[in-house]
Structures are given as C-alpha cells and as structure tokens.
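My current task is to audit a protein record that another person submitted. What it holds is a sequence and that sequence's fold in token form. Thanks in advance; the entry in question is below.
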Amino acid sequence: MDFVSIRVITGDVARLVAFYERVTGVAATWANDDFAELRTATATLAIASTRTVPLFAPGSARPAANHSVITEFLVADVDAVHKNLTGFVTDFVSEPTTMPWGNRSLLLRDPDGNLVNFFTPPTKPL
C-alpha cells in the first residue's frame, strides 16, 4: 500500500489552489473547475469542490471544518519560508519554533482555516 494524497474539500477551489500554489511553489494541475492537484515527488494535495462530495457520499465532508488534521510540508529552511510568506499569510498560528523532538516548525492556517505545518528536521533534508 502507498499513501499518495490528501484531499481538501472547499467552497472555493480557485482561492485555495492559489493559496497552496503560492505557499508551496508547486503549480496545480486542474482536471476541471471542481478539482485540482498539487503534486510533489512524494505525495499529492488534492483540492476539490463541495460539488464533488455527493459523488462519494452526500454530506460526508464539509469545507472549513477541520479541527484535527495538519497538512505538513518538509522544507529546507523554515525561517526562509516564514520570511517569504510574511505579508501573504494572514494567520500564522506559531512563528518558526524548534520543537522538543528537534524539528524547526512553522504552523499557519490556510484560507479555509486548515492547519498547515512547514518543518525542517534537525538534519536538513536532501
């Protein structure tokens, strides 16, 4: 089994895709107005409209209601990411912080309120 993606349901696909393109530097691939993906070498962030929810199970997902999942991105320099996003991101939950387990971490919220963590481990990623 391979873990390949996380899908975020939103009421405004274009807004959320534009946000993630800006914060990650990854260009989205659009299937249609209701679905886009930001693909990296290791995983994909899928962003889908509320109009896609009934295709799976009506009422099974709601936008802007996440209070338990943090989407994480491994980066080479958390402080550089913070500097780059200052003035663009409106909700930094925490400034760059060294966590007890050694990761340097930057926690923020996307426009739908979902938590996003950029982190650098004690040994810089390749």
Q: What stands out?
A: The radius of gyration is 15 Å. Residues 39 and 45 are 6 Å apart (CA to CA). The longest strand covers residues 92-98. Helices lie at 13-24, 53-56, 78-85.
